[in-house]
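From the thread on structure requests for the teaching lab: each student submitted one protein with a one-line request. Submission from student K.M.:

"Model Probable enoyl-CoA hydratase, mitochondrial from Paxillus rubicundulus Ve08.2h10, tokens only."
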Amino acid sequence: MELEPTILTREEGNVGIITLNRPKALNALNAILIDELLAALRSYDRNSDIGAVVVTGNNKAFCAGADIKEQRELDFVGAYNTDYLKDLNDAIVAIHKPIIGAINGYALGGGCELAMMCDILYAGRGAVFGQPEIKLGTIPGAGGTQRLIRAIGKSKAMDMILTGRTMKSAEAEASGLVAKIFDDEETVTRAIETAQKIASFSAPVVAMAKEAVNEAEELGLKNGLHFESRLYHSSFGLADHVEGFEAFLQKREPRWTHK
Ligand code: CO8
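Reply posted by the TA:
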């Protein structure tokens, strides 16, 4: 039984900020935290005042993975019937608004996988990424084997997944896992600034851009280009598109109506 909320939420302007809040367990993902995280993400996704979301943890840990104490109780059938992983992945993939992961400290196992479900990753210099499941006698179960290879390539992904070694943020940035690194105390602020910048653009256009980029993971180049064209053409039907082009030609800032 959790006495404290397992996540905390606050808003800064048009940005929703979700902080994982199980510090004593290094923000390990248990069933309650996953439910609360998904409820918060869905709520921000439906909130027209929010244009982007930041997900973060604390300075010691973004998230140390699945809750090992909770998972230890599961046998094959229990694990098979536990929908956490699928719920977590499916629900985050379905969020329309961009999610920035602001990572300080450990992002291990399911924590690294949760980070990789975000759209953009910013990390503090002290952040540590890894898929140490092999040391527990299991393998990544929330997308680690699939997303890490896409982020950093096969050889590095194998090196990490087969040995359980961790990667510090400088290597993570050089490998393309994270977009930018900062001093730890700046990570969340910079993520919020970027989220505010994204939230200042036309919301439907931002959603289209996110969707098109994400489809690149699913589709071959031919189908991906076709999908992109369709969304690009659709954007010509938006009032914000008319406004954006007019504003440029009139040498003024656009006034988005988000329509
Ligand atoms: N689950 C539950 N509790 C944890 C976890 C975890 N993953 N990680 C740390 N804790 C707890 C510790 O048990 C400890 O609790 P207590 O004070 O009651 O003993 C507390 O957090 C602090 O941890 P440490 O004392 O170990 O702190 P250190 O600074 O010495 O070490 C480490 C930090 C290196 C991060 C270490 O805690 C560690 O190795 N943690 C486990 C990391 C790991 O193996 N993660 C992978 C888990 S398996 C997984 O994620 C499968 C993915 C499936 C998808 C999940 C979606 C639900």
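TA comment: Strands lie at 7-12, 15-20, 52-56, 61-63, 99-103, 106-108, 120-124, 128-130, 166-168, 180-182. The longest strand covers residues 7-12.
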